[in-house]
Design a protein that fits this description.
With about 200 residues, this protein is of the alpha+beta class. It folds into two domains: about 110 residues, PH-domain like, CATH 2.30.29.30; about 45 residues. About 45% of the residues lie in helices and about 25% in strands. It is built from six helices and seven strands. The protein has a four-stranded antiparallel beta sheet with strand order 1-2-3-4. Helix 1 packs antiparallel against helix 2 and helix 5 runs antiparallel to helix 6. The longest helix has 22 residues. The relative contact order is 0.11. The model has no long low-confidence stretch (mean pLDDT about 85).
Amino acid sequence: MSFTKKQLLEGERLIILARQHTIVLLKPLLLNIVVLALLIGLSVYSRKAWFLAFYIVPLVYFLWEYLAWRSRQYILTDRRVVIQKGVLSITSFDAPLDKINNVFHQQSLMGRLFRYGEVGLETASEQGTTIFEFLSKPLDFKNHIVRQRELYRSDSYTAGGVAQPSIPQLIEELASLRDRNIISETEFQEKKRALLEKI
């Protein structure tokens, strides 16, 4: 089951929906190719085509892994991060943005070449650290989470009846995000320009 707008809370907005990289399907795909080659070889050698009937097992395995890949989703809204997975039964995990303390990503050399990696969330809940493995474009997903977390915190700050931070304070916070490589120089300049236009 795919994540739909019906699963959003009232007033909640979907930001991004990500999946694992298709490299996770490489193992079942290679298994199918090897088994099919062996079965074709056996059929030709023994002149008995019924050997090909055994191909149903790796084929079903591949289809199951594909359906599991399709159903495993990583969702970011303007309020929370959701992991949803399952083919026959569905399980999900929510991490509210205000409970996320740190966000990190990690990529191996292969991950950098094929654009996949891990994204980790350190939360204030009992879950501790949650890792999203083989995530496609992990740095993009991490940056989206950080941006939404900062926006959510600034909105909550205002909604709580406390004065909103001044524009110079917001620019300082943006500069801090840029210095920590959370946002790029281009993004910093765009946000700074937008804030200065409000003066």
